[in-house]
Amino acid sequence: MRAAVLRTNIRSSGGRLWAAASAITISVTFIVAGMLLADSLQRGIEAQAAEEIGGADIVLEPYALYEEGEEAVDQLVSDLTALDSVAEVDIRGEGFPSLQLILEEEHREDPDAAQEARDEVQGLIDDDTALFTQQEYIDQWIELRTGGATALQFVLGGFGAIAAFVSAIVIANTFQVVVASRRKTLGLLRAVGAGSAQLRSAALGEGALLGAAASVAGILLGWVAAWGLTVSRADLFGGGADLLPAQLTPAPALIGVLIGVGVTVFASAWPAVRSGRTSPMEALRPADLSSGGAAVPMVRTLAGLLFAVPGFGLTVYAAASEHYSDPVTGLAMPLLGIAGGMLTFFGTLLLGRLMIPVLVDRLGRLVGAVTGLRPSAPLAGRTARQSPGRTTATASALLVGVTLVVTFTVGAATTQAFLEEEFSDQGMIDQVLAVVLLLVAVSVVVAIIGVSNTMALSVMERRREAALLRALGSTRGTMGRMVSIEALLLALVALLIGTALGTFFGWAGVSSLIALEEVSIGVAMPWGRLALIWCAAAGAALLAAWLPARSFAQTPPAQGLAG
């Protein structure tokens, strides 16, 4: 029975859940690509180290002797060559070359003899000359040069994690609406003998299957991206690091699958519980899928305030402090600022259920009054307010990306303004900002996928509403505009809140980093870049709503009222 329920769920979902799964694919792609690129550089560095040491058994770095003159170095080379255990002394490198010693065969094969040879060499050098065995030198070489690989892995992994967080919001929202749309089907399954546990496990199995398929796609895309970058010898790490072709190993693949399946199953857990609570009588009830304007739980509001208010205070304290570390806790002010910012943002997400639907409704009325888009704009705002859960989740996913983009944009502009006198060439800051914004934009793309998917599901659950509006005389143009305006209103509310939060976080981040007495950091607003962000987000939201708007406008009145 469980397998039959799972097959029924997959057939009924069509492509809606698979569209949401693309969000997981993007996040897994970033994480896997970062791990493979780091592994590629690690192997390249190991190969460089082996080539650099050239088979030497002992490496000396007599940097202090070079200050005494070449005669001192030549004398050391002569003394080393005279040792019976040393077969060859090679001088390698530029500037201050190292001395690489190859031992006689009998000293290379016998560990005790090799140690005896090292002791002899140690007796000829002073304390300022470093002595390394072959493995010690290779380990040091790798340690000094793997910082770029580790940094890139953390950067790509971090942005992949952000994309995974946004994906969880998108998938949870999608599952919630899909479960609501299956109410009749789930009621029929309960009526023919399916138990609550079977419906729950089928929904979780659907999430696991979705996550597994999306993870496999993300792993393959991450491997292809990493392989393409390594084969093209892209200088991702600076310094012309030698990148070997990326190889797909079990560890990144396993981590990708665990993240993809874990995030999807976690996001589908609550909708799965709701599906298990479906009564057999649901099969006999009219198909009214709207959740209505349910009141916001007081616990949610209080929790949001408990996170947001102290978080805001902690962020302001870190930004306004004249000390780099807190006198009480000893923690660095930037760390306190990050902690405060995370608390503030999480609290804002919890309070979003209270604010976002109301803002969308009011903004819809304002747009209708100013532009004359009546009744499309007011209807779009009212519809969004009638489904507060769906509206909040969709706008929250976009809010994450917008806040991050604005934070880095305002932070970079504020830094440039503060360092204007010290740095005449600000190209480096612009380059770093461009890379960061490109990576953060991935979360915005994921959120836009969520907007498109949610609007499509919204159209599906509002077939009766669409049919009734058509029967009352609404034109197809009015119907299509209503859906497009609803998506635009969601984007505008996310942009308003995200710009406010991002501006505050960007200023606070720079202020906490530059903790100087009698120095006031003023926020610099890059209006041109912000306008570009707004236009891009609004345009993407309209584009995402195009197909759902077309489907909504083409609903036949008779068919919609009959369903």
Automatic annotation (TrEMBL):
GO function terms (MF aspect): transmembrane transporter activity
Coiled-coil region(s): none
Subcellular location: Cell membrane
Keyword Transmembrane helix: yes
Residue span, ABC3 transporter permease C-terminal domain: 159-280, 438-557
Membrane-spanning intervals of the chain: 17-38, 154-180, 208-231, 251-273, 294-319, 331-356, 392-413, 433-460, 487-507, 527-547
Keyword annotations from UniProtKB, A to Z: Cell membrane, Membrane, Transmembrane, Transmembrane helix
Pfam family, one: FtsX
Principal location class: membrane
Topological relation to the membrane, as annotated: Multi-pass membrane protein
Cellular component aspect of the GO annotation: plasma membrane
Annotated family: Belongs to the ABC-4 integral membrane protein family.
Name of the protein in its database record: ABC3 transporter permease C-terminal domain-containing protein
Organism placement in taxonomy: Bacteria, Bacillati, Actinomycetota, Actinomycetes, Micrococcales
